[in-house]
């Protein structure tokens, strides 16, 4: 297996069903973080199998999901047939096939750890969002990464480890602020308060 696209295509067969506390906590975090926010047009980066899409379209009128794994997208398309949703096969390290000044919310969950250069992502997000638009990011916590946690799955008894990059809390914030965003909220999320936090989330806003 050579690259993350191949690995995600393989992981897709079990992504929704294997034991994965990070995926499960993220599903709770996005609801807790965005339940009180009104949003209508959503851009979901690294939408994967559509785990969070289902909840997002219970609130939104329109959602575009971008992902570079065709098998993840196949799962998402099978799960979500709503006409409100368009899934597009795209690499978010490249130019995104969506219009500028269109979305009032962008979400990125458990995906930026696979992205080396954050500046391209936040600069592109800034262009795609309308003024006052929000950007929600939820990732494996940098402290958890430093403690050795990596995105991985098991195939035929072998651990397949995804290629990941370490981004500090400050790096996320500085890259977003450099693009023009303001930080509204930053939170650490725990399995158990005594543990290292599992996830970190940020809510950024494009100024009105
Ligand atoms: C751990 S999964 C998370 C999926 C979903 N956001 C969730 O929370 O369940 C990461 C997703 O990011 C996608 N991904 C990783 N790097 C990407 C890239 N450069 N361009 C597009 N998608 C990417 C993978 O294919 C995968 O579906």
Task: Summarize the model shown.
The chain is an alpha/beta fold and 208 residues long.
Describe the structure.
- The protein has 208 residues and is an alpha/beta fold.
- The chain has one domain (4-15, 40-188): Rossmann fold (3-Layer(aba) Sandwich), CATH 3.40.50.
- The chain is built from seven helices and nine strands; from the N terminus they run H-H-E-H-E-H-E-E-H-E-H-E-E-H-E-E.
- The strands form two sheets. Strands 3-2-1-4-5-9-8 form a seven-stranded mixed β-sheet, sandwiched between helices. Strands 6-7 form a two-stranded antiparallel ribbon.
- Helix 5 packs across helix 7 (169-179).
- The relative contact order is 0.17.
- The structure holds S-adenosylmethionine.
Helix-and-strand structural type = alpha/beta
CATH class term: Alpha Beta
- What is the total tally of β strands? 9
Uncertain residue ranges: none
Number of domains: 1
Count of runs of 4 or more consecutive helical residues: 7
The run of helices and strands is HHEHEHEEHEHEEHEE
Bound small molecules, deduplicated: S-adenosylmethionine
Just name the CATH architecture.
Answer: 3-Layer(aba) Sandwich
Record the SSE blueprint:
Layout lengths: L3 H8 L9 H14 L6 E5 L7 H7 L2 E6 L2 H10 L5 E5 L13 E7 L8 H11 E12 L1 H5 L5 E4 L2 E4 L7 H11 L2 E8 L9 E7 L3
Parallel strand pairs: 1-2, 1-4, 2-3, 4-5
Antiparallel strand pairs: 5-9, 6-7, 8-9
This protein binds S-adenosylmethionine (SAM).
Q: Tags for this entry?
A:
208 residues; Rossmann fold; alpha/beta; seven-stranded mixed beta sheet
